[in-house]
Amino acid sequence: MPERPVRHFVSIPDFSREELLDTLDLAARMKRGEYTARPLEGRTLAMIFAKSSTRTRVSFEVGTYQLGGHALFLSSRDIQLGRGEPLADTARVLSRMVDGIMIRTFAQSDVDDLARYGSIPVINGLTDLLHPCQIMADLQTIRQEFGPELEPVKVAWVGDGNNMANSWLNAAYRLGFELRLAFPAGYEPDAEILARAQSATKIVVTHDPREAVEGADVVNTDVWTSMGQEEESQKRLRDFQGYIVDEALMGRASQRSIFLHCLPAHRGEEVSDAVIEGPRSRVFDEAENRLHAQKAIMVKVMAPGAA
Ligand code: CP
Ligand code: NVA
Hints:
Blueprint: H1 17-31, E1 44-49, H2 55-66, E2 70-75, H3 87-97, E3 100-104, H4 108-117, E4 122-124, H5 132-146, E5 154-158, H6 163-175, E6 178-182, H7 191-198, E7 203-206, H8 209-213, E8 218-221, H9 233-239, H10 247-250, E9 258-261, H11 273-276, H12 283-302
Helix pairs in contact: 1-5, 1-12, 2-12, 3-4, 5-12, 6-7
C-alpha cells in the first residue's frame, strides 16, 4: 500500500474547505460528547513552547489525554533548541520518538522547517504570522451561535493586523465569508495573505473601526501588543487610540452580534469591561472551544482514520 502523506496544520489553507468544515463538525460532536474514541492511545504529542501560554498549553495537554495519548511539555528554554541545536535536527530526533509536534514560536519559517525536516504531523500553536488553531475555535463558536453555514456571517476585526488578523484572512479565503478589517496605518496584515483573501471573497479594509463594525455579526479584537513586541508597547498604546471595542462601537453591529477575543485581554485598552463581561461576549465559550477544535485537528492529522 502507498504510504499516506504526512498532514500538517501550520496554516488554515493546509486544509481544504471540506476538510475545515469536517473538522469543525467533528469538534462539535466532541463538544456534545458524541465522540468517545481514543485514537491517540499509546501515542505522544510533543508541545514546544518558545512563548507563554495558558489556553494552548492546557487545551492541547488535556485534549491529547482525552484522546488516549500523552502530551510532553517542552519549553524551548529547557530543551537544546534554546541553546542553538538546529531545528532540522530537533525535527528528526522528535520524529523518531513522538507521533506529532505542536509548536508555539516566533518565526513561521521555524514551523515550516519543522514540517519539512520531520516526518510526523506538525500543528501551529501560534507564530508571529499565524494563529490557526484559535481561528478554528472561533469558527466553532460562530457556528454554535449562528448555525453551520458560515458564508452569511459578517466578521469584523478591529485592531492590529497581527497573527490573528492574518488567520482570519486565511479562513475567509477558504470559507468565503465577508471580513472587514480596521487597523491603524502602519499595522497592516500580511500583504500576500491579504491579497489572496481579496481574490476569493469580500474583504473590507479601513482605518475606521465604525465602518468595519457596521452591521457585523461578529466583532473580534486582540491585544495591541503581541508577545515579542513588548518594547513597542508605549508607541502602540498611542497608535491604537480610538480602536477600543466599547458599547458605542458594539451598538453599530447587527442585533444578533457577538463579541470574540482570543484572550488574554487588556480591559480598558482594546476592549471595555462592559463589552467583555456583557451579554454579547462569548469569550469563554471561545476559550473552551480551543479544546474541542484542537482535538478534532489532532485526530485529522495524527489519526485520520478515526475521524
Ligand atoms: N488565545 C491563546 O492562544 O491563549 P494562550 O496564549 O493562553 O495559549
Ligand atoms: N496576538 C497575540 C495572541 C495571543 C494569544 C500574541 O501573539 O501575543
